[in-house]
Amino acid sequence: MSETDMGIEAELRAAGEAADDALDVGRLALVLAALDRPDVSILAYEEHLAELADAGRRKFEKATAAQRNDADVLSLMLSSLIAGRFNYRGDSETYDDLQNANLMHVIDRRKGLPVSLGVLYLHVGRALGLDLAGLNFPGHFVLRLQAGSTAAIVDPFNRGQTLSSADLLQLIRGIEGPEAKLSPEAYAPVTSREILLRLQNNILGRALKANEFERARDVVTRMIWIAPRRAGLQFELGRLEVHAGHMGAAATAFETCRNMASDDGEMRIAGMAEEALRRLKARLN
């Protein structure tokens, strides 16, 4: 591992110990992206994030008090900046391209997944002090912007357009089927850590689908760095270590999963880890 990669690991591990509200989602998404582009300097991408934030501040400074308390006006301000001036958009043509989940590539190509584009909106929103949060909407990442007594749902994939309840219902039915309904959980805000995990989960899913298990193990390891107390991630790491033939590392991961899950009262996954350990020991004996 290079000194650069060691520095990135240290930064991500430090983020794993930090409070959720202290995480800089734009910076950390960029750091995660840099792990897959070790020969490319991160400096120009850091400068671009700063440029986005500075441009947003200049727009915001010109807004009246009434405009700053109107979520629709603020959402239009964000979309005119990110999708308008900087031409970011969803990649509907090559949606499954791994570049869409790497923020450095997203910046290069000006297109990406809903969650990677959402990171850019959140980055600007954080710089402006806006009440902007990602939502736990399944299958398609959206944002909620609140200002004064108003709120707007923003779709970063579709050039920051605002979505009505009818739009969201149509969207979820396109994902889950014609009988799907909007639940309160779909409107629940998620933390910056959850957003980073969701971004990495896109890469993980594609690696598993392509049977790239070593790649998948690397991605899960990164996810554990930023979320070290997630029992489910330890379980997934254990399974991938078994596939790689690293039985000692697999046992450690399953034991860690079992202990974490037991402490948190997640008895189902604790039981799964216990059973995995039993099977692993039977194989070794």
Summarize it.
Helices cover 63% and strands 8% of the residues. By secondary structure, the chain is of the alpha+beta class. The strands form two sheets. Strands 3-4-5-6 form a four-stranded antiparallel β-sheet.
Structure description:
The chain is an alpha+beta fold. The protein has helices at 3-17, 25-34, 43-61, 65-68, 71-85, 103-109, 114-128, 165-176, 192-209, 213-226, 231-244, 247-264, 267-284; strands spanning 89-90, 111-112, 131-134, 143-147, 150-155, 161-163. The strands form two sheets. Strands 3-4-5-6 form a four-stranded antiparallel sheet. It has a two-stranded parallel ribbon with strand order 1-2. Strand 3 (131-134) and strand 4 (143-147) form a beta hairpin. The chain is globular, with a radius of gyration of 20 Å.
Shape: globular
Number of helices: 13
Number of strands: 6
Question: Unreliable stretches, pLDDT < 50, 5 or more residues?
Answer: none
| Helical residues, percent | 55-70%
Strand order of the largest sheet: 3-4-5-6
Mean pLDDT across all amino acids: 94
Distance between the termini: 34 Å
Run of helices and strands: HHHHHEHEHEEEEHHHHHH
The secondary structure category is: alpha+beta
Main sheet record: 4 strands, antiparallel
Percent in strands: 5-15%
Rg on CA atoms, Å: 20 Å
